[in-house]
Amino acid sequence: MRRPRLLYIPFWATLVFLYAPIAVLVVMSFNSGDSAYTFEGFSLKWYGVLAENERVLDGLVNTLIVAAGSTVLATVLGTLLAVGLARHTRSRSLDAVALMPAVLPDLVLAIGLLMFYGLVQFTLGVTSVILAHAVFSMAFVAAVVRTRLTGADPSLEEASRDLGAGPVTTFVRVTLPQLTPGIVAGALLAFTLSLDEFVIAFFTIGNLEQTLPIVIYSMVRFGVEPQINALGTLLLLVSFTAVIIGQRMTRIGEARAQD
Amino acid sequence: MTTSRGRHRLGALVFLAPGLTYIVVLVLVPLALVLSFTFFQRGRFGGVIYEFTTENFARAIDPLYLGVVGTSLKIAALTTLIALALGYPTAYLIARLPRRWKTIALIAIVLPFWTNFIIRMYAWIILLNGPGLVNSGFELFGLGPYELLYNQGAIVAGLLYSYLPLMVLPLYAAIEKLDPQLREASANLGASGFTTFRRVTLPLTLPGVLTGSMFVFVPSFANFVIPEMLGGGKTLMVGNLIRNEFLKARDWPFGSTLATALVAVLVLLLLAQAWAARRA
Amino acid sequence: MFRSRFTRRLPAVATVAGLALAVAACGGGSSDSAETAPRATAEQLDPNADLTKQSINITVWDGYTPKELPEKVKEKLKVSKMNVTLHATNEEAMTKLTVGGDSGIDVAFVSGQYAQALNEQGLLEPIHAELIPNLANLYPEATQLSYDKGNKYSVPYTWGTTGICYRTDLVKAKPTSWNDLLKPPAWAEKKVTMMTTERWLALPALKALGYSVNTDKDEEIAKVKELLVQQKPKLLQYDDTTFGDKLKSGEAIMVEAWDGWCPTTDEKKNIEFVVPKEGSDLWVDTMVIMKSSKNKEAAHAFINYVLDPEIHSWAAENINYKVPNKAAMEKVQVPEGSLLGIKPAELLNGESIIDLGQASTKYTRMSAEVTAR
Prior knowledge:
The complex is a heterotrimer.
Chain A: H1 8-29, H2 45-51, H3 54-87, H4 92-103, H5 106-119, H6 126-151, H7 154-162, H8 167-196, H9 199-204, H10 212-221, H11 226-258
Helix pairs in contact in A: 1-11, 2-11, 3-6, 3-8, 3-10, 4-6, 6-8, 7-8, 8-11
Chain B: H1 2-37, E1 41-42, E2 48-49, H2 55-60, H3 63-96, H4 99-110, H5 117-128, H6 133-140, H7 152-177, H8 180-188, H9 193-221, H10 225-230, H11 238-247, H12 252-279
Antiparallel strand pairs in B: 1-2
Chain C: H1 2-36, E1 55-61, H2 69-77, E2 81-87, H3 90-98, E3 107-111, H4 112-120, E4 155-160, E5 162-167, H5 178-182, E6 192-194, H6 198-208, H7 218-231, E7 235-238, H8 243-249, E8 254-258, E9 271-274, E10 283-289, H9 296-306, H10 309-319, H11 326-331, H12 344-347, H13 360-372
Parallel strand pairs in C: 1-2, 1-3, 6-7, 6-8
Antiparallel strand pairs in C: 3-10, 4-10, 5-8, 5-9
């Protein structure tokens, strides 16, 4: 367990690099002045301004709807896909196809979907973004669940089948319980990816609704807005809590799987 | 035997069909649309004329656009290299930390990734701006102000900030798996620390290096938001070019051609990466 | 090995591609015919339609209409719902309005040349003047705008010009010419910004060289490119949206700006606006009604309501935009330092930017060449 001291230099450099902007964000969110650069005194006023910003609140609601919808869709499709790929085929090209949406540049997927929705005359809105987000989320869920599957013991499933259970029964009774931690982790990943997704939503959201990242984008484009600092701080707090909860749940899941 | 095989087929259908259908309809068909639009033409005022033409390809092979691809390759490669230089030692150290600290360090690396992407870039604007905090810091020492924002350096900083965790995580996974006995054996055989690293550790973690590099390179190469926000519109990357053709020029066929070219460049790079990984 | 696998997969690839082509060809029919017959015939509208059964969805720039407009409209016109969505730029609005299908938007606010492009693609409902009696409030000049003479498919909401906005306390000499911006003196280096939208990016150089803002001559556009390439190293950034803030913070001291966005009424009184001596443009932000709208009577009633002097004067009084509405402007007290005093006749000296059709791609390319350097 030797840790070369020299390694601490890039390690701390990385952490400073990662946290300097965050620190600025958090400190400036409590600024009582309007300036983005000078701290004039402690105040919660930007949180108040934020709380009254209906656009942000609407955007938040839409973002949560999109994230929830696409997560459900992606988790179901991705889990089935992972099991199918691991247990029912040996095709490596199918593997590649399943992973493709995760590797494809978001911009290319975004314009492809925009063209597709346009040609089939699908009205752009929350639904079109849910469907679009589920595309890449599904690939991530499938990848995470697959890692879990390779660790799982296939002999249990074989035993179940030998005892006369059909593939669906085997899946529900034997495979699924083993996979739960993987599915939870995949769903969490899908949810967070959707929460922050900008490019695809930007191209496929339509006129009537906006997701939070798009609202933030247009706020930032119109100049310095101290309430953005407050929003960033709140999002950080929520993410932090989510990480902790996620960590706990995975650990409980693992403990249960071992029972 | 036949029934078991039949059941197997049924299983494959039940499990594979929904996901694969979804991918065909919402990924392959849209991609094929992008591909097919490369053969059409922009209408006079936007819109599309559905007549076969190869003119878009002639337009795309142009020193102007090749130059933009070059700039994007340069910026993405630089970002990847710095990410590797910072990420490898960081991942190496984390892998050697005690279990408790390991988890905390990993969360610390990923956490900034979980605030909003645009807000993270906004924080960089505040930091690097003319009257921003970095310049105020320099001022204390009687230096500056420097021009830190609205140039390619700022773009690299922004890309690095966005994708560094994607470098650290695969590297960590690769280094973590290493058997410490290998290094001990190497040391016992008289190899210096550096030789051990070069001959043992690095080759064994190379797949992690390649995966991490791909995770950083691909989104950097195709980015358009960061060059726009931190580059002050003065640097054109492939992503900006495509976005402009779609949103500003309303030239979907030519935008599709450029997008196809982007995918082609990435596929070539991925093939090269796969080839390198096989040789490693 | 690779080859055999590839050839085995080829039929699947071909099928998908063929499918997509078929979809494209079918879906394309409508857009293709729109090219040949841009101006569709007007639908019969009922002047006595029951507006309580209709709703109004508009898309507009942030802060461009009064916040309380939806409530007022609902109360006054008795429509069932009024929904406001925001776009940051013309381009964003255009993408969603032209993608096909029903965008859900009844009334869109876009600049003149974009209204023209929408109309050319057959996406706009002609304006039924008889449903908008308040059109009579407009200045006569506002019915003679070159992108849409006679307001056939668009109604002007605000208008103005483009010039140089600058900090009086930080410039060593007041700018008078576009060349002050294009060839900034040493004291202004890295402290000037230009717009990103390509036609406005080209405007200062076109005017400085004495060309039309609507030129499609390759050699003229090439000269413009040369000027812009020379200017680039001396720029702070290309910026369409935050130049006002940049001036206030002092990061920029001279910027290309639309008059309405130049903060001349800032309390510090250190910002002024000038239309350079070589001349400039006349820009118009318009209201258009989408052909796909299911609430066309309500949309006309909405535009009529906006043209009411009480409502229309809001833009002049609160966001410092001149409105092409004589009755509204007569109500407005012009504060000191405001640019609202510019008269319609002076504005008409400016040249309207129109959509150049195929030639507009020359500007796209020119702007790519400049920014890629």
